[in-house]
Every structure is written in C-alpha cells, then in structure tokens.
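for the writeup, i need someone to sanity check this before i put it in the appendix. the sequnce is what the collaborator sent (i think, or maybe the updated version? ugh). structure was predicted straight from it, no edits. if anything looks off just tell me and ill rerun, i have time this weekend
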Amino acid sequence: MIGQRFAVIGLGQFGSAIARNLSERGAEVIAIDYNEDNVEALKDHVAYAVTLDATDKKALQSQNIEDMDAVVVSIGENFQGLLLCTFILQELEVKRIIARAQGPTQRKILEKMGVTEILSPEDEVGNNVAEQLVNPSVLMCMTLPDDFEIVEIKAPKAVISRSLDDIGLRVKYKVNLITVLRQSEKDGKHHIIGVPKSDTQIEENDIIVVFGKTRNIDRFIEINN
C-alpha cells in the first residue's frame, strides 16, 4: 500500500476511520470535508487535510483528485451531495470510486449510476447484531453475496481437543476454516496462529474463523455447541 494515493471525502466517524487506517498502512491520504472542525481533527493523522465543497468540480480538480488510486465518498448526512460528488468524480474519470450507501434505496441509485463498490456500514452492523442475538457464540459476521459469510466463532464445546481432520469441517459441514485465533498466556489476547494444518487441534478458548453458506455455518454451530 506504500506509495498509493487515496482521497476520502466526508470525515464523519466512518470516513475518518477509513482515512486513519489507510494512513497507518502507509498510504498517502487526502482527507476532504466541508466542515473545518472535522478537517482540523484529522489533519495530524493524514498526509493532507483540506476544507472544501466536494460538489464543486473546480475545487476537486484543484486537489488533482483524478490522479488518486481511489476515492472514497463517505458523505453521510447529505445524499444529494454524495450523488453530485460521485457524478463529478465519474466525469473526471477517477480510476476507482467507492461510495457509501445508507439503505437499499441509496444502494440501488448508486448502482444505476454505475458505481460497483458500495459500502453499507449500517447494514453490516445490523447483520452482526442479528447474528450475535441468534448465535451468542458468534463474535463477528461478515455477510457476503449469494448467502455466504465469514464468521468468527467461539470454539464449540464438541470440537475442543479434536484435530481439524477429525472435525471434518469441509467434508461434514461444507464449511472452510480460514484460521484460528488462540489466547496467549503472556497478554491474554487472541492471536492468529497462521494457516492451520489438518492435525491442528482446537483448544479451549480458541476462536475459529470460518467461511461458508449461512445455513451450513448455522448447522455446524447448532450441532457442536
């Protein structure tokens, strides 16, 4: 990511988090917002922070926005402004545009405009909460297209002290294991153990990260808890 250049437009909580994370990963980040307080709060965490109207084509051009590797439009309070900003970026032939949508209607409008990368943080939070309510052992759930998901699960009781080969995630449940997070004796935190092998044993307090169809993951949790 070092050497890549990104712009983040809209510095609310969501946009600011993206800008900070990109900067921490070594990218050059330009943070843009019409609110001077939002810009001031972020200026020491990114390469450049500027106060301007992102619906003004000339203002965006003054920042060489068309030269960015990608532009994230995370304007949350003004959807009309987000649409206009996105349209201008398309006119300027920005290589990659990632836009935020709040709800299915906004998503459909952005899709009609030809935007293929759309973020819906509110939906992701809702999916996580719903999954955790249904399955308390689920710590994180990332919903993917076509009823697939990636889920972090507290190791079910029935798989503890068993090898991955014995558990048969793929064969019995049609679920793939991505990795295992194991609690460290030193700091008490969970750390990734790397790429698990077939003889890797699941230990008490492990967190397993799995990928598969929602119904298959639910079945695995139900049978083994």
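The longest helix spans residues 121-134. The chain has two domains: 5-119, 124-224.
thx in advance!!
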